[in-house]
Amino acid sequence: MYRCEVIHPQSKEVLDSGLAVYFKGPKSFTGEDIVEFHVHSGRAILNSVLSALSTFPSLRLAEPGEFTRRAFESGRLDLTEVEGLHDLINADTSSQRQAALQAVGGVLRQRFESLRGTILRALSFVEAVIDFGEEEVEDDVFQEARVLARKAHTEVQSLLADYRRSEIVRSGLRLAIFGPPNAGKSTLLNFLAKREAAIVTNIPGTTRDVLEVTLDLGGLPVIVSDTAGIRSTEDIVEKIGIERAIEAIDKADVKLCVLDVAELDKASAELNSMIRRVKPFLLINKLDSRPLTPSQALALAKEQHNAEGVWAASLQSGVGVDAFMAELGAKLHDTYAAQLEHGRTDTPLVINARHREHLQGALQFLDAFLGQGLEGEQNGSSDDIVFAAEELRYAAQAIGAITGRIDVEDILDTIFREFCIGK
Ligand SMILES: Nc1nc2c(ncn2[C@@H]2O[C@H](COP(=O)(O)OP(=O)(O)OP(=O)(O)O)[C@@H](O)[C@H]2O)c(=O)[nH]1
Ligand SMILES: [K+]
Ligand SMILES: [Mg+2]
Question: Where in the numbering of this chain does the TrmE-type G domain appear (predicted)?
């Protein structure tokens, strides 16, 4: 790194004083020789330095993503690391940043490469039988291939199971607000969002559609949905709204029911059965409208509903709101941790929709291979064996597409060359 002045090559004008860094290839970001200028920010400085550089005929501005593309093409990054870099730059919350850092660090690449290696080893066993004939190879070669394919199958399934965890890291927990009409559900959404996201009126049945807002609640990404009040109604539009509300509640990781303190015993049969079924957290709202202390309201609510987290507050006067927010934040963190761990202790991998698609493809090919009934070579005709090999090749290709390494043949060659066949 050099401390230097940046001087216009023709006019010799001093444009800025800064630092220049020389990264010698191949240990640079793109693998090529790279020079970085560290100059002061400010439009005039940047413009003058860029226009000075453009006076060199061999230089031009990089296309969007060109540095990362070159890094990929020179093998410095695979596709999962490229995606991780993109996620890292766009991370909004600390949980997203941590997960993206893992991908940039190559954790995903290693998992997918080792999975692909397992499939290729299985393939090399099957290829051995095709190339050398059944007499030349050990009896249990098919068995060996099946064991490896089954191992790969299990691994693909566990990666697919990570998809929901990844979705939570990427897009957030889903929190559904529901309850009877007019309890203050939309008021709560607006309070959480710190803006008038939803229409609030004193007319019951104001909210019809499900309204989703993505928020940062205590450092976690949370998709909050406000829903139509649940009651029996003949209004067609409201009916549809209530059906959508029920869908949103069922999809949610955290369910929060808002009740009006004055109407605790007036909930409809539909709502009561929903509360019994989904066991939501309860927020008893409008405490200002009755001469009750928060603890009296809580006792009253617990009499009606046997819920795990119950708070009493007034979204209008602000009474009880701080405690509610702090404890809801803690509950969200608990749920988040529980969802991520899923009975496991490793940090979540960020499996995105693209990865999932290829994993599902690989699973089908592995299923097809395992369903071929090649328990022993006596069961399989040589055609069957050739088809079985094809399934494994496609499975390996599907995984290779995730990392961007689809050159199956040459890797197969290396494995095959090392394969001890006794010849
Ligand atoms: N007194 C009092 N009124 C409140 C409180 N919170 C909300 N309200 C009022 O209650 C009425 C209904 O509020 P909304 O937020 O629209 O209720 P909702 O549950 O979304 O109603 P629907 O969408 O119709 O199901 C509005 O007039 C709010 O201003 C509160 O803490 N105290
Ligand atoms: K309302
Ligand atoms: Mg509403």
Answer: 172-333
- Å from CA of 198 to ligand 1 middle: 11
Query: Is the per-residue pLDDT at 421 higher than 50?
Result: no
DSSP letter for each residue of 258-297: EEEGGGGGG--HHHHHHHHHH--EEEEE-GGGTT--HHHH
117 in contact with ligand 1, CB cutoff 6 A? no
Q: What is the pLDDT of residues 55-85, one digit of tens each?
A: 999 998 888 888 888 888 888 889 999 888 8
94, amino acid identity: S
Does the CB atom of residue 320 touch ligand 1 within 6 A? no
Q: Is the dihedral of CA 154, 159, 164, 168 positive or negative?
A: positive
Tell me the ipTM for this assembly. Answer: 0.99
180 C-beta closer than 6 A to ligand 1: no
Distance between CA atoms of residues 355 and 239, nearest Å: 38
What are the counts of helices (DSSP H) followed by strands (DSSP E) for the chain?
14, 9
* In contact, 103 and 80? CB cutoff 8 Å: yes
Q: Which atom of ligand 1 lies closest to the CA of 206? A: 24
Question: Is 289 a pocket residue for ligand 1 (Cβ < 6 Å)?
Answer: yes
Q: Which residues contact 389 (CB under 8 A, 6 or more apart)?
A: 123, 126, 127, 130
pTM score of the predicted model? 0.65
Residues with CB under 5 Å of ion ligand 3 are 185-186, 206-207
pLDDT tens track for 341-357: 654 545 567 788 889 99
